[in-house]
Each structure stands twice: as C-alpha cells, then as structure tokens.
Amino acid sequence: MEKKLAMVIDSFACIDCKACQAACKEANKVPKGQWRNWIKTPDVEAVAKNGKRMLFQPGNCMQCEKPTCVEACPTGATYKDPLDGTVRIDRRLCIGCGQCLPACPYGARYRHPELKVADKCDFCAERRSNGLEPACVSTCPNKARVFGDLNDSGSMVRKLLETGNAVQIVNNKSNTDPHIYYLGDPGAKDWPVKAQMPSAFAFWKNLAGPVMKGFVGLSALGVGAMLVKQFMMPNDTPNKKDEGGNKDA
C-alpha cells in the first residue's frame, strides 16, 4: 500500500460550529436530509452531574483497516483502495441493496435518494485528486481535524499517533480498526454498534461474485450488477427500514 490515509481529531478543539458539516455537504453534493460527517454532542445533564468539560466529537466514515462494509457488499462495489487505504464505493457496481448500511458499526453510510446507491465519506476523493485536503479539515476554524498519511514518517497524523495519546472508538464485538483517531478524551465512546452482517446474499458474495470477477472481468460484473438491480428492485426503491441515513447526533 503506497499510502494509509487517516485523520486525527481533537474533541477539545471542536466548538460545534458545524462548519465541517456544511463544507462537506457543499463539496460532495450531499443530498438534503443526509450527511457524510457529523458532530456528536454530549448529554448536558450527565456532563453537569460529572463535572466534566463539554466535549463535541466530530466524525465521519472511519476508513477502517478491516471494514465490515466491504464484507457485506455482494457485488464488490464497496472496496478498500489499495493505493491509499480508504474505503470506496464504485457506483457502477452498487445495486442499492442496503446490505452495507447495518454492517457499518458507525452508521456512516446512507442510501442516496436520487442515485439509489450507497454513499459515505471518502475523504473528499475529488478534492484530494486536485491536491486539496478534505473539506472538513480545511474548513475547521480551530483545526480540530488533522489529515495525513500514516505511512509517511513526516506527516502530522503519524507524529500525533507516536505520542501515544490517540485512541480509537470501537465496538469490541466489531472492532474494525478504524483510521480515525481521537486525541486524549474523545467524549462518548459507547455509541458504535455491533456490525450486522447479511445472510441473504451469502451465496452471491462467496461464490457468484468471485466467479464473475475471475471469468468475465469487472465490466461484465458491472452489467451483472445492473441486471441484479433490475430483477431485485424493479422500482429502484430502497427498503423503508434503511431510509434516513446519518442524522446529527
């Protein structure tokens, strides 16, 4: 792997201004009612009771080292980019089945209401291709987010991790080894859920998918994915139980 992109977030520096959310929405054309990133706010009463400082916790797709969403995808549309370690979605292969949504412990995915495919943060891939940082990073007034390459010994994210003061937020039953780290006390830690892995597409994922990839190639797999989408979702309508995606915490 040439790069291993990651983000280190300082919750102490976040003031809940939501500039990161607005910048992300604009840069990535995120549809109304959906979000690619979020800021989790603490329980005010609990904070007052414990006498602790109010901490706001920014977050987005955790770009996991062991992404359960990749395992859940029946067509290979969700994959781990071998060049930079990010988890990406190939919209040509996505059939909008929604299997990846509950497979994410962080609720970082939603079904795009217009495109009918899964969507999530990709560290602003388009901006990065133009030499820019993710919109949430460059917009934050307090520089609460630091972005860089863990494989680069000179990068700030690597240096921050080497201090030993960075932590991951995980669900112990679904520890995906996220590449989003938090400095010191991140605030709430108990919100990730156990990944819900699909069973309906087990045969497609374990047998049909690899066979198609091996014998007919990616282009034909894309055609196959579209055919499956037509047969399984003739009206191209997502399951009601999966609608809504991310909401402000």
Describe this structure in words.
It is a single chain. The chain has 249 residues and is an alpha+beta fold. It folds into 2 domains: 5-196, 2-Layer Sandwich (Alpha-Beta Plaits), CATH 3.30.70; 200-235. 28% of the residues lie in helices and 14% in strands. It contains 7 helices and 10 strands. The longest helix is centred in the C-terminal third of the chain and has 31 residues, at 202-232. The chain is globular.
Please outline the major beta sheet.
4 strands, mixed
**Mean pLDDT, nearest integer?**
86
CATH topology type of the largest domain: Alpha-Beta Plaits
Compute the number of helices.
7
Bin the helical content.
Answer: 25-40%
Strand order of the largest sheet: 8-1-10-9
Q: What is the domain total for the residues?
A: 2
Radius of gyration: 19 Å
Number of strands: 10
- Proportion of residues in extended strands: 5-15%
- CATH architecture name of the largest domain: 2-Layer Sandwich
Kindly, what is the distance between the CA atoms of the first and last residues, rounded to a whole number of angstroms? 34 Å
Uncertain segments of ≥5 residues (pLDDT<50)?
234-249
User: What is the general shape?
Assistant: globular
Query: Helix and strand succession?
Result: EHEHEHEEEEHHEHEEH
